[in-house]
Amino acid sequence: MSASPSLVDMVVTPLGWVGAIAAVTAYAMVTRGRWSGDSLRFQLTNFVGAGLMCLVAAVNGVWPSAVANVVWIVIGGQAIVVLVKARRRRATQAVVVPLEVPATQVRAVDLAA
To answer: What is the pLDDT of residue 95?
Structure first.
């Protein structure tokens, strides 16, 4: 007689597989040069992967793995914050480049017309 599947078997374990696939995918994409190690895509994928694998490890009482993933989450979270702040800073620091027009090409414009 087999026991009915538990919540862990039905939900948490598949989420752990998703996390493992995410982490391996992120690593492969950086290793192949398709993603940069300091890209938001890489950091978010790693962050999600670590979070899901941490969930599975904690639910199953595998504390060394859970703690390692918490550290991975903290490092990834900090990297995400730094990247998002840098993006916002770049977006708000628009560079104004003066357009140099020779005086011979400047025409008077009648604004009242």
So the answer is: 66
